[in-house]
Amino acid sequence: MSKVVQIGPETSQDILNNHLLLRCLLSKRPVQECSIHIGSDCRCPSARWSLYGAYSEKAPARNMVKPLNRQAIEGLISQARSVKGKQFELADNRVAGLRIRAGERSTTWLLCARLHNGKRTRIKLGSWPAMGLSDARDAARAKHIEVIEGADPNEEKREAQREAERAARTQRRLSDVLDDYERVKLSQLRSGAQCRRGIDGKCGLLRKFASKDIASIARSDIVDAVRKHAETSPMAANRYLAYVKAFMNWCVDQEVLEENPAATVRKPSKERTRDRFHTLDELLEIWDAMGALGYPFGPLFRLLIVVPMRREEVAAMSVAELELAPGGNPDEAVWTLPASRTKRGNSLRVPLSPLAVALINEGLAASDRPKDSPFVFSMTGDTSVSGYAKAKRRLDKIIRERREKAAAEAGCEAEEMEHWTIHDLRTTFSTLACEVLGADIAVVDRILNHVATATTSKIMRVYNKSELFEPRKRVMIAWAEMLEREIAARATKVGSK
Fold first, then answer.
1. Would you call 134 helix, strand, or coil by DSSP?
2. Mean pLDDT of 76-98
3. pLDDT at 52 over 60
4. What is the pTM of this model?
5. In angstroms, rounded to a whole number, what is the distance separating the alpha carbons of residues 369 and 365?
6. H helix or E strand, kind and range, residue 112
7. Of 337, 363, 361, the residue nearest 351 (C-alpha)
8. Structural contact between residues 95 and 112, judged by C-beta atoms closer than 8 angstroms
9. pLDDT tens, 164-181?
10. Is the pLDDT of residue 48 over 60?
11. Is the dihedral of CA 276, 279, 282, 283 positive or negative?
12. How many other C-beta atoms are found inside a 10 Å radius of the C-beta of residue 139?
């Protein structure tokens, strides 16, 4: 039976104004057995308050609330599912304000309470059967205490939801920020696509964070990614880290981030200046092996030996950039590299030797080349050639197999060619042109389209804009003629064996 404590008019208003006093008055009684009834002689309306603040305008009759148990709940659910579109409720007889509501699809525990501002509210506690009767009563009592202490659980839930929505609006995925970076910054750089690949491409440093909030990427995440990448590609890890640092700095400038998490991350590997170059014999051996690659890499790699420009510059050579016989004179052939395609951002006229013209014509006439392609070297027609690494592996395999065959015929062990890269062909040209041909280093620098490294004078580097076209042309023709002589001599030597 419920224990009712009668309060007179002299204290009733004070009790209404201080719910904590109610807790003190009723603290000696079990929760389910205690309530306070304020009589009608008070200036306040007749009311009933439980220990934890549930309120009703009139005290309910003793027999109105039936016992709440599993059987009653299952009956309620059956009733709700039999009547489409309606909901039914049962009140608990032990914890005031606790109710279970059943609808066609779900059954929910609710707490009916009155807030400090006088407004009634319903607080969702959980769902049946995940939350059982005992758990629901415990949850209701806990929420009662929060209400008594001035809280509004529903408002707190709404505020948490609003905060989550605000956070979602301010949250920016790494991939989305990179799209902005690519549009604003990378699109202006010749190496922009390479930078993007290094950040979130197939082997990019931050690929696994692409769908995460950029602000959640910590320094430790970047350090871990760099360390793992350096295990297989130390030099690439250095480059990719540089791309990430530049990107994060841009994010700080754009107020996407407060600070750069990669700013103090060190390069995993010490940079080494490459000094690998080929002897003339090695270069001729490589030239012969290149002939077995076929289009596009056979003529492309050979052209990189004859015209020692950067790999991407030659690979993306377009027909529109070429004048193979200006004025009907093939000796004046020239290739004009636009500023947008050079590393230095300067346009450059490249003199073409007859050997270079022959290799370009070989590429243009190749049966595998799409006839309407704007590029000399292309497999798709719409884009320039790609897949250099795979082609280089094929080339290395051809060289290795030929050496093994020659060694077997000579009855000795094959010697493996020292590791080299396509870029080493430029170093080889620079070295042999100066040592064998006696070319001026300043002219060789201009052929390679370097800044004027042949002089230590900063003034000369700034003001000397001469293309040195004629001196470059003489060196390029002499280089091609030497190659042709050596190639012919090698062919004669091989044929005589």
1. helix
2. 86
3. no
4. 0.55
5. 8
6. strand 107-114
7. 337
8. no
9. 766 665 678 899 999 999
10. no
11. positive
12. 19
> Residues 373-390: pLDDT tens digits?
999 999 999 999 999 999
Identify the pLDDT of residue 497.
58
Strand order across the beta sheet in which 120-127 lies: 88-91, 98-102, 107-114, 120-127
Residue found by looking up tokens 């409720």 in the block: 89
- Lowest mean pLDDT segment, chosen from 37-41, 159-163, 366-370, 458-462: 37-41
Residue 121 pLDDT class (50, 70, 90 cuts): confident
Residue given tokens 């493996």 in the structure block: 416
- The single residue listed with the structure tokens 């491409």 is 201
User: Considering only 84-93, 300-309, 313-322, which range has the smallest mean pLDDT?
Assistant: 84-93
pLDDT at 304 over 90: yes
Q: State how beta strands 34-38 and 47-50 pair.
A: antiparallel
How is 390-407 classified by DSSP, letter by letter?
Answer: HHHHHHHHHHHHHHHHHH
Distance CA 217, CA 256 (A): 12
Residue identified by tokens 């030929």 is 402
Amino acid occupying residue 187: S
Nearest to 412 by CA among 403, 400, 420: 403
Question: Which pair of tokens denotes residue 98?
Answer: 């606790």
3-state SS string for 12-66: HHHHHHCHHHHHHHHCCCCHHHEEEEECCCCCCCCEEEECCCCEECCCCCCCCCC
Residues 394/293, Cβ–Cβ less than 8 Å: yes
Which residues fall within 8 angstroms of residue 380, CB to CB, at 6 or more apart?
370, 373
What does the alpha-carbon distance between residue 204 and residue 489 come to, in Å, rounded to a whole number?
47
E strands of 352-488, at which residues? none
Compute the distance between CA of residue 17 and CA of residue 360 in angstroms, rounded to an integer.
Answer: 96
What's the token pair of residue 371?
Answer: 């006839």
Please report, as a single letter, which amino acid is at residue 435: E
pLDDT at residue 36 is higher than 70: no
CB 14 within 8 A of CB 20: no
Q: Is 472 left (phi over 0), alpha (psi -120 to 50) or beta?
A: alpha
Which H or E run includes 464?
Answer: none
User: How many angstroms separate the CA atoms of 101 and 113, rounded?
Assistant: 15
